[in-house]
Amino acid sequence: MATQISNNVNGVIHEEEFKLTQAESGMSSRDIGPDSNKDQWQDFWRFQVPVGQALIFQSHHWLAMYSTYVVDGLDLFLLDDGGSFSDDTTDANDAGAGDIALMPGTEAVNDAAYIGMHYPFGRVGFDLGTAGVGNTITWEYYNGSWTTIPNSTDATTGLTSSGEFSFQPPDDWARTTADGKEAFWIRARVSAASYSTVPVGDTIYINGTSAGAAVAIGDYERFRIEVRDASENQRYPLINQTRYEQMNDFRDRTLRYFLPLNEPIIAKENMWVIVQARPASGILDVSASYFELACRRVRKGIYA
User: Fold this and answer.
1) Which of 84-88, 281-285, 293-297 bottoms out in mean pLDDT, i.e. has the lowest?
2) Domain map (residue ranges) of the chain
3) Which H/E stretch holds residue 20?
4) Rounded to 5 degrees, what angle do the CA atoms 190, 194, 196 make?
């Protein structure tokens, strides 16, 4: 790509260090969620360089980003009591107290609570009205057969306290049908009947236990930034498939990621700067996500 901007123009050319952020005039954005194969790149933010301007990106420039997921309600919640299913999705999503039976009153081995979503997810939060006492449950997902969920953390300790069950969405997670309803399912299955007090829930959340909770971006999430020509046919990567750890403050200089560029990339007027994401665990909330992309801005006809 050309690395020079012609100075053969009428008027003054003004150059300045610049930070492109989500708040820039003309920036467009939208919430995005994963596709079933976790391989679909989607536009998170889009910015078209105004007429008379250009943005120059070099290796000393950097990106900083902070992203959160939308705390989402459940698509489906089912309770399996000896092979007989009941659907308590409505109660799982409302604010009613103590209205979600998370296990049968007298549980038996292979009874289970099923949690289903239309997209792969990685965090389930439980507000318990009654904490379970005693437990032996196994968290499972479906990959052609029901299998123990790997790389998981159960802060509920088997639904004996409010908290989150979190995991990396497995690569081989497949949709399946439970009680005639298709979804990406996980289940908490009784592997030894041992509750002396069965757990009862108030509310269940996907991606956290409170709105706006920050989420670490895990191994399956990716961000990339591209410069594209006006027709979007030619693409020039600034950052390609970068992994991110959680960023509590996107202005923290120690958390800035320097652009891995061997030579400058220039976004001229009417070209696009596009931040894309490939989330796997839920819906990324653009209203609570931020980015700062350092560059050098050139403006024609601007007097210093």
Assistant:
1) 281-285
2) 13-70+215-300, 76-206
3) strand 13-21
4) 125
Question: Do the beta carbons of residue 108 and residue 191 sit within 8 Å?
Answer: no
What lies within 8 Å, CB to CB, of 96 at 6+ separation is: 202
Please give the model's pTM, rounded to 2 decimal places. Answer: 0.67
- The domain made up of 13-70+215-300 has a fold known as Jelly Rolls (2.60.120)
CA dihedral of 213, 219, 220, 221, whole degrees rounded to 10? 50
Under a CB-based contact definition with an 8 Å cutoff, are residues 193 and 107 in contact? yes
d(CA 38, CA 275): 17
Residue of 240, 246, 285 lying closest to 32 (CA atoms): 285
Q: How far is CA 80 from the centre of its chain?
A: 29
Tens-digit pLDDT profile for residues 148-164: 999 899 999 999 999 88
Q: Pick the closest to residue 165 from 130, 145, 199, 139 (CA basis).
A: 139
| DSSP conformation letters of 253-269 | GGG-EE---SS-EEE-T
